[in-house]
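Sequence and structure are kept together here, with a separate record for every protein. An example record follows, reproduced without changes.
>
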Amino acid sequence: QVQLVESGGGLVQPGGSLRLSCAASRSTISFDVMGWYRQAPGKQRELVTRISGVGSTSYADSAKGRFTISRDDAKNTLYLQMNSLKPGDTAVYYCYASNGRSAYWGQGTQVSVSS
């Protein structure tokens, strides 16, 4: 069993930045895909961004140009750099990892964007 633990969430003003981290309990090299999802109150969970084992990335339109995903397999950690945050980015952000056979989720970290 793999545990994913997110950190770095918090309250930030519009236009601010946050960096989320997702630490895995074992090597991330075996994960074909890792990514970030988010779920706002009353809404479905949605994909924000994902990264493959070779570093290919994709982003939701809402995240393009503002968010950057990266992974450091030497540290077993996934990151999400979020810049120019908007109130609409307020949500619980979840880390996700898949090795093609199983999928794993973190417990989530709250991001709130408000003045």
User: Anything to note?
Assistant: The mean pLDDT is 96.
